Amino acid sequence: MRYFLKLAYDGIPYHGWQRQPNASSVQETIERALSTMMQRDVEIVGAGRTDTGVHARTMYAHFDCDPIENKGKFLQSLNRLCGQAIAIKDVLDVVPEAHARFDAKSRTYQYHITGEKDPFLRDYAWEIGRMPDHEKMNEAATLLLETEDFTSFAKLHSDAKTNICDVTHARWEKTGEHGLVFTITADRFLRNMVRAVVGTVLEVGNGKISINEFKEIIEKKNRCDAGVSVPAKGLFLTDIVYSPEIFI
Fold this sequence. Notes:
The chain is an alpha+beta fold. It is built from 5 helices and 9 strands. Strands 1, 2, 3, 4, 5, 6, 7, 8 and 9 form a 9-stranded mixed β-sheet that branches. A hairpin with a 3-residue loop joins β7 and β8 (about 180-185). The relative contact order is 0.19.
């Protein structure tokens, strides 16, 4: 049978989601735990690939196994084997052809910044020297909703077949007195795209470039013209949406 795992993880201890040689990853940790439980090699397929240090409040992955008789006991055992930085929230019955990556309709990321030093946010938000103009940044962010080709924010020399994405939401909100969070939703994201977008929009908020210059950067379709990628630690994958039909 095919199942979806719903999970969350702290990205700090891992070199990203994807399994890789000589480095600890979220995928490899869960696969090792499942293989231990089932006494055979088990592979999982995630809904996406987060980079080193990126967190996930919501992630899905699929795997195949014999029918699970007691899901409560299954989740308890799997969580114990996965360690403290990974939380398996649920195991869900899905149709045999369901695919965690290809069946995802949309994904949502959030990026957190803080204008003050906070020891409790040091691994979960980017500390900046002064707060930018978030109203100007929202004006720039609306241009993302009108954009199809995100080559200007794509990692160079990636293996992506297309840089076309459909962004349906992009907005900055204040969080408390000293914080800002950027929320962006799209059908797909390019590698490093959100961090590059945030880094470039922040240049608008800091008065380094104008709205028109931001628009020109998008139109040039050249990563070298955009801003730097912001640190991974402030980035969270927060939601993934699937069609209800894939769940049993």
